[in-house]
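chain below, 116 aa
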Amino acid sequence: VQLVESGGGLVQPGGSLRLSCAASGFTLSSYVMRWYRQAPGKERELVAGISSTGRTTNYADSVKGRFTISRDNAKNTVYLQMNSLKPEDTAVYYCNAIMSTTNDYWGQGTQVTVSS
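prediction:
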């Protein structure tokens, strides 16, 4: 069972990145998927979530209107499209798949740095 994030990197303020989270060893379609982030010296925070069907999404106030979470259950992958990036978006971004307390998986994280 594994979640692997990709797509992070260095981007200038105002730029965009698309993060991907690919699952192996299990099927994502039954899981609520979430993206979290953790900046240096700060607690991990929930950025966005999407229901198993993809019909319901939710976002932290700090990213509403700029980030979009989506999923492709056929590809067993979840995405986070990040636009209009700000320096305060700099963090390690983690993918989380949860169905129950015993079915709760995390990726290793991908670094996003927003800097000029």
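The mean pLDDT is 96. The CA atoms of residues 98 and 104 lie 4 Å apart.
thats it, cya
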